[in-house]
Request: fold
Amino acid sequence: MKKTLMTLSTLLFSATLAAEPSPPAPAASKLDPAWMVMQEKVSGVIGAEKQHAMVDLAYATVAGDVCDNLDINEKSLDEEFQRFAADLQKKSSAEEQRRIENGLMGYFGIYVGLVVAESLNDTEAFCKEVSEVRKRGGGPTRYWVTPEPVAPH
Reply:
């Protein structure tokens, strides 16, 4: 399972890790074909950089739901979606923009589903990986905040 999560991490953070030495190639996840199809489709619509940002958004969203002591920074999430929309406005008619936005929301939902599936295979390992991602910084960490501690009663 850890190898599956390493595969997911490699896909999620390939842009961030490009300057770092590559880890050994992990065993293939059963979901790898779905990840590859999505990468090709979404990159074709919004480009590789924004595709990576969309995967980061999905990963951050699921991690904030699945793992303890991690909340989503809703403002940064909204700002990222606004950047997607702003880029589309520059390139498309209003009708074409709506069509693309609807498609992107569908793609985002698929990415969330893929990350949920990966996280449910081994939640403990997934959250451990999230903890390591938080330490490394970059990628989806820009969408997380550490929750304020709750005072004991």
Q: What stands out?
A: The longest helix spans residues 94-121. The helical segments are 2-12, 32-46, 48-66, 74-91, 94-121, 123-136. Residues 1-27 have pLDDT under 50 and may be disordered. The longest strand covers residues 71-72.
